Amino acid sequence: GVRAYWDGEHLISRNGHQFCVPKFFTKDFPKFKLDGELWSKRASFDRISSLVRSGEAKATHPESQKDVLHQKMRKVQGEAKATHPESQKDVLHQKMRKVQGEAKATHPKSQKDVLHQKMRKVQGEAKATHLGVKGCAASAAQNKWQQLTYNIFEVPQAKGNLLQRLSQVKETSYLKLIKQIKVKDKEHLKSFLKSVEEKGGEGVVVRDGDLSYYTGRNSHALKVKSYQDTECKIVGYNEGKGKYKDKLGSLNCKLKDGKIIKIGSGLSDALRDEPPKINSIITFKYYGYTSKGNPRFPIYLRERIIK
Hints:
alpha+beta; five-stranded antiparallel β-sheet; 33% helix
């Protein structure tokens, strides 16, 4: 799933940006804080992450209004300097003649009308990027969000032990509690881990349920999985063969130590048609190391979401 934090009013990404969520999805959420993941079903991380990163499912940060204006300014400046430094005046003169021609098209007084229209258009574009909650909800792909649920594993700052904190959450159609299972012994943990991995899960999280709420990483909350995983940066593509002809065959990925490895396993057909972009960061799993020190049997897991 995709990590999401509920602050009592909005769903926030782990990097602090607001998701654009339809009102029906959060209308029954509590006013207190929650921590969890947006989820639909197993082996669907790419689809979920694509949804929450799309314009339909995520909110552009209010500060992006400045970014849009800066882009427009750079575009105008680029047009003006397109051919030669001296051409700047020519381009500006052409634009002025064009604007004057448009303004005089119907009547001398129409110049004000044209200017007013342009101002209204610019104001409309400026407002389009703002994060107003109503606009955010209206633009979300509601039929897609109906496939998701928000699954809770923590109630930040609440009192009591883990189960007492989670007991404050009332489940709804889109708000679910992740079931907590008490570990009997090591064999029980191994058996449960195996059942999760056979269903396509990455692993399990083991926590000390008697502790009060705390923040930060420590030995009281550990991830347990039968493989290792790490990140790498995509630096190139390799063309596929056979059934993957004319599609992506594998990714060239740069490890933290500078080594380049190929990752082809774990890529869905959708990713082979539209792979992650160059320089994007992905997570892959592997099973130990080869004699040359490379990750053994690397398998693509997911792309890091950067907002």
